């Protein structure tokens, strides 16, 4: 399935050029016939085609009107049958209610623009209309930071607060047209929920997280002391068994 229009650098467009990666993404999502999928940035429709071939119902959000026109032509039968629904819009302004999605009743499977990957992780996972599974094709460095890095980060802990991330596989730049300057990777997040926020509010958690990573070279207690009493912090550390010199990057979610 070749592109019928030139990529736009401003939209971060790198189109998949074979069905190898789409198949890997669908397997990573455990996609079953009849399941509902939100696809962000379908582009030329390579992943869309695989989703539809596996019997999924697809809601696709696309910002490029040229892609919309191409997708309408390519998937005219699926659009007419209601298996595919196209929305013209910016993923940075996702409205899950407008897309007629229901909490925990859909999956997100997408090859996303890399420059908004962090934003999309946050937007989707923090939403009150969460998917049950999320599979993204992202920059390899991002997937590694979330799943494989020995040190934690704002991004890795922010993702792990909502689900279980898994590094599925690396993807070479040759699988794209035009090829990006970096390698990519498929990441899956399963068991998505807000169970970790039954006893603490999300806003409080992320406020504490940002404070903890405020200055990388500082210890956690030192960063938190900018807003809280140092003695109270160290007493709290003692209660939960944390060393007084622990750093935020060495923390893991319980």
The residue-averaged pLDDT reads: 91
What's the helix-strand series? Answer: EHEHEHHEEHEHHEEEHHH
Low-confidence stretches: none
Q: What best-fitting shape do the alpha-carbon axes yield?
A: elongated
Characterise the protein shown here.
By secondary structure, this protein is α/β, with parallel strands linked by helices. 34% of the residues lie in helices and 19% in strands. It contains ten helices and nine strands. The strands form two sheets. Strands 4-3-2-5-6-9-7 form a seven-stranded mixed β-sheet. Strand 5, helix 5 and strand 6 (133-139) form a beta-alpha-beta unit. Helix 1 packs across helix 2 (46-53). The longest helix has 11 residues, at 202-212. The protein is elongated and about 65 Å long. The protein starts with 14 loop residues before the first strand and ends in a 14-residue tail after the last helix.
Question: What attributes does this structure have?
Answer:
254 residues; alpha/beta
What is the topology?
Blueprint: E1 15-16, H1 20-29, E2 36-40, H2 46-53, E3 57-62, H3 65-74, H4 76-81, E4 84-88, E5 107-111, H5 117-126, E6 133-139, H6 140-147, H7 154-160, E7 164-171, E8 176-177, E9 184-190, H8 202-212, H9 220-224, H10 230-240
Parallel strand pairs: 2-3, 2-5, 3-4, 5-6
Antiparallel strand pairs: 1-8, 6-9, 7-9
Helix pairs in contact: 1-2
Can you describe this structure in just a few lines?
By secondary structure, the chain is an alpha/beta fold. The chain has helices at 20-29, 46-53, 65-74, 76-81, 117-126, 140-147, 154-160, 202-212, 220-224, 230-240, and strands at 15-16, 36-40, 57-62, 84-88, 107-111, 133-139, 164-171, 176-177, 184-190. The chain contains ten helices and nine strands.
